[in-house]
């Protein structure tokens, strides 16, 4: 209520306290307004807001989270402190980290790739998912394969030799390069040559016949063995004999004269034809005649009596080869060397010669001997001359 003051008998003043009837809300401070005002000012205490009046909006806790004085970061949850506090708790939302306050560290996206909770394999690249996610994408680095996650299949070296991307030829051995390489070494197997790569020269059968390692003699035909062999067959060409190999018997001229296939007669000289011929020349030895070949006329003794070198009154006897002459012996009652171009054969003294000469084959010719006797006889058939001894 009011209050009155007296200044003697002539004056009286009364003061009315507008706060006495408690016009203010319990959380407001009441301040009486000076007279002539009959009202009071109600001011909400710290931490409260409103008109402070019991018959007005009163005083309610000031929610610092709901106005421009919100101390929290946009990615933080604000929890108001009860009055009289004018502050709040700021808690970063899921996926964020920090003190949550705008004037502090605020709230930044939690990078799960940058701490011990990294879900990715050591050989994977981690890409953080934006908040509110607390996960990341794990991608295996070049040269590795898998899901990239530490708790999954992880990342293993891509073996380029074990899949369709194998760069090596079918006849090459593939050796994978360690990651991060996506390539491999390709080595041609034994018996093959090349770079071993399907997109290169590949692997070709090493032709042992086509290079300096040719094992065959110059006169041999070389036939390469299929890989993996590094050898070849060596066959001596026609007219040559041997194993055909340069480091063995090689190939020598086939001597048709030196074995059972000798085409020449026993009395012929055999001269081998140079390879590639498999034949020989056959020449009858001195005193023989013919083609010299066993399957031909062979070699027969040359009959020196034909043509006869002997006198008509001599007997011709061929001398065996290798002689090229004959022996001439005068017939009985004749004497001489018996050779036509020698002394010939003359009638010996005391011998009669009865000669019958054609065509008078039936006429008896009587020749007187040197002794003066004459012989007579019957007609006989003679065509050659004969001598008769009359002694």
Automatic annotation (TrEMBL):
Record Gene3D superfamilies: Laminin
Record Pfam families: EGF, EGF_3
GO cellular component, one term: extracellular region
InterPro entries assigned: EGF, EGF-like_Ca-bd_dom, NELL2-like_EGF
Domain of life: Eukaryota
Keywords on record: Disulfide bond, EGF-like domain, Membrane, Repeat, Signal, Transmembrane, Transmembrane helix
GO molecular function annotations of the record: calcium ion binding; extracellular matrix structural constituent
Transmembrane segments: 360-382
Residues annotated as domain EGF-like: 15-55, 61-102, 109-147, 157-198, 205-246, 253-294, 301-340
PANTHER family tied to this protein: EGF-LIKE DOMAIN-CONTAINING PROTEIN, FIBRILLIN-RELATED
Protein's name in the database: Neurogenic locus notch homolog protein 1-like
